[in-house]
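Sequence in, structure out. First:
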Amino acid sequence: MKRKLSLMLCLVLVLSLTLGTTAEAASKKKKKAATATTTTATAVVTYPVTINNCVIQGTDVVLTAYGAQQASDDGNYYLFSLQPYEVAIGARTDYCAVAAKADTVAFSTPLNLNTATSKLYSRFQVAVLKGGQFVSVSNDFYITNPEAVANHTTAIPLGAKKGFTLNWKYASDLKDTGAGYASYELDITRFCQGGGTNYTYNGKNYSFNSTVVAEYDAIAKMCQNNGAHLVMIIKATYNPATLDLIYPTGRVAGYRLYAMNVAEQGGTEKVEAVMHFLAERYSNQGHGTIHSWIIGNEINNNNPWHYAGNMDANAFADLYAKEVRLCYNAIKSANANARVYINLDQRWNFADGTPNQYAGKSVVDAFNAKIKSTGDIDWGMSFHPHPLPLNNCQFWNIPAAYAGMKLVDHTENSKMIIPTNIDVLCNYMTKPEMLKADGTIRHTMVSEMSLTSANPTYASNEQIQAAAMVYAYKLTSQQPVIEAVIIHRQVDEAAEIVGDGMAVGLRNSDGSKKYAYDVFKFMDKGNSAYTDFALPIIGASSWTQLGVQ
């Protein structure tokens, strides 16, 4: 993935801000800031009526709400269904259910699954009739159990915690190394360029690119045949032919990846269709299985990794919550056992003032609050605890210029989370407010960790890379909260070597194996020959000294 340069530049920018920002950096920031309208978060509103439950039961949606009875023209409460792109009830009169006013009320309305009037993605509001107009008196609330209508429930592979970012040419490495996980990228815009694979969803006909479909059929089957848990990273890129898939204020060329459209009817419905198509197809139906879905990449970097336009962290979190929920409902309504994740980079409480780059914790705090208040779902956390700086393979030795900034500690206030303080993330995920509705810990994985075997600035070689991988794996995999640790990547990518000075693969770009390949293969097998070589490189006499086994 060509995502590494942005973090390096961000960290360089920290130094430049300390020593004096360069004119070039300032010019770039001004150019980016001028590309879109600024959006701010809506103030939190307390409503007199609270919807606290919304579930699918059979072919209906059943809701309950409570609160002091509100004055109105009659004695009724009215339930409205709003699609993701609808802002408010407005002048609508087409309520979907009615109930006599009471301190606690129940509603039932047809789900209308896979029809033009489907409520699978709807949010619901309770309204009263005042002066002849319907006025909302409640919070928004969504369906929380889309898996109730799923036709598939695929098994989750029970393999090793370790994995890597897959290069399909070497898929057999999954079985050879005993990797339990493989990650891969999927750009939804590619499926919507061209056609050939027809699909009808919610009363509309779509045709997805057959060549791209066949490509992902092959990837999914390769992973399945090699026993791997496939983690798919869902993204959207800029293409003039598919701008309807991108959030309206993000339709500005020049960014890496983009937020998905949840604001316009046509684009939103197309995102729903392509996500449900993918989840349905890759649910062990002869095309392989995608077990886990990561929605976006390093999304706390609106600029440049999930571009949606200029907005503060709270507004961005609100938007991202809508994206995740839409994808969650599309995926889980096809495969009840699929897992859906958000994704952050290592900037936990760090923000340098670059427009539309946010501290990860501020985004997930706001995201979680939004999801909980509108219907809690089983989202998971995927995280990238890269070294500091990114190209410093010897992450246990933070260079003096960065060490002086005091960016890493073992408290929730740490600016960065890298392998040595991954406990910060794990402790955060066990806080009561972060738990799932049933009180259990959310699925959590390290979905990307980059360790380079060569860099012009910080010393590294194949042995140092392998030693860093062993140490990072021990630090992260020993955490009970973490279910997977994915090394980025399997094979060096030329663009990363040239552009970022990063050669992070287990293989060289020509396919030849690095020292790290066999180390990866045996590092979790109890064979000290493939782990203890790392101790003198790290500067320790034992793993116990480092707090790992």
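Second:
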Amino acid sequence: MKDVEKRYKGSMLSLTACGVIAFVAIAAGLLVFGATFLLILFPVAACVAAAYKIHSTGQQKRNELIEQANQLNQTTVEVLATAIDARDQIGTGHVRRTQIYALGLGRAMGLTGDRLDALRLGSLLHDIGKLAVPDHILSKPDQLTPAELEKAKTHCTIGASILEEIDFPYPVVPIVRYHHESWDGAGYPSGLKGNRIPLGARILAIADTYDALRSERPYRKPMSREEARQHIANAAGTRFDPEAVHIFLKNLTKFEVEIAAAGVDYPKEEITHQKTIEGKTYVERIQSANREVFALFELVREFGETDSLGAMLKLFAKKVSQLVPTDTCAVFLLNESREYASAAEVTGQNADVFLSKRIRPGEGATGFVLKNLEPVVNVNPDLDFSLSQLDLIQEYRTMASLPLVSDGGPVGALSIYTSAIDAYEDEHIRVLTTVANIAARAIEKLQAHARTRAHAMTDPMTGLPNARSLQMQFEREVARADRGNSTFQLIMLDLDGFKGVNDSFGHKVGDQMLREIGEVILSQLREYDFLARYGGDEFIAIVPEMTDGEVAELSKRIENAVREFRLEVKGSERYASVGVSVGAAAYPQKGESLDQLVVAADRAMYRRKSDRKNLELMRDTKAPEFDHLRSALAKLPVAAPGGLILELDESAVLIDSVN
């Protein structure tokens, strides 16, 4: 535009000079040649006039072309700037509104000519340096870490470096470099203070911040007009030039009228007119691509950080719902034998119905995916529901299901259902496939981790908790008892005659006996009681809130159940059986640590065993004292406070086990 003005001024001076020269020449010709000179002059003048008209028309066309080129350049810069801002999840209109605010404030503060042109272009390109900031930082919905914040701050210097490659006729680069400096010197990148910050940068800082506050960002909702005005006013003298703030707020209504006239008002009135591709504006497509990149980055990072399969599945389902339209998202996981899949995580509508579903490979749409390991897209949702679930059949319009396959094979399926759209697009399925592949590997890893952890806490012989798990359960029971001022009992159970089973039938039968007896004992306990294999042929149970009398009754039931159990020995008509000795100790009366209670229960049990053996010996030898001792034992209380011992005759068990 400035070149056009210079050319126009130059043309006017030339025309004026030519006019003066022509006037002098005509006057001289009339003096020398008289009226005859006019006959010569008129044709020449007509030719000159025609030539001038042609020149003038051509000049006007050139000026129009230059003006169109300038306008095209301006529009190109604006569109590219909008595309850059879209990576930061900023909607359309931000750069244009920022420019209107900046130019309006610049004029109000007396800027003209080159300084105003610099502000015009600088306000459009101030965030070009964000091209060097990773997408996951620009799109992060949470607070940035210190390292991420420092990376984001580099966009000022990088943007300035990019623009330094262009030979601008006015000072654009300083505006871009310093638009995040603060009036009090606390800004970046150089920590400039007060009037040392270029005026254009001070103006842009206010315009950019105000529009950012009024716009929605990934990490917050937009502020109202009054909230944004108050924020700017509060930052006068610290973040912003106080004089510029005063002028900006005084003229804000005027700027907003200009914004409305330009058709770039805030979301309530904002209507985009860009050409669309598949129903989306270019800004929406850029934002969608960056949301996808960020979601995938978050998935990989958070999947790697969690050691809980449940937490990972919740995150997985949540991310899927953010990326594609879903009313219900269900993650089905196969059991270890891969005979069926159960809903392990469900988000959205009808979660309770889905969580109760078991799907066998080949049954319905999801079952087809589990069997064939191929996705199904835009099929009838009725396929996954029975006639008894008619309401659900009518609720969804379409569904898609994708296999979850990792290096070790299939782990399950992801199924999504919606009533919001008639069909999922190829883009939806592409995104889902990428996410499903990431999730499948994470699921397999966490399942393996869970199995390893379970094995570390489980006795491999019986499948019961092991001694390590017992210690952890004991600590939980102690904490519960201390909080509620209550008690619990530790019961030691030692199998009698187990050595005879091993000696007579071999260790395979002995191992099977341990597993079966564990099940027998468990069947006599309550659902919330705890049973662990302590080692060898010993088991320990922890039973909360039981009196000594109740423990005596429980022990009697266990004794009878174990005594009545018979294990058939394959390839033989014989059977094996064992007995059990039981001792109990109460917390905290008999001890406050696991070791103390185990020792107390163990001593009581073996003391009772010893007494029983002595009595049996006396009975076998028909000692006269036997009837007297038996009468005395019959008068003993059922259980001593905090301890109880029961024993099945070991000699009889040994005989039973081989007969």
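Remark: Residues 462 and 508 are 13 Å apart (CA to CA).
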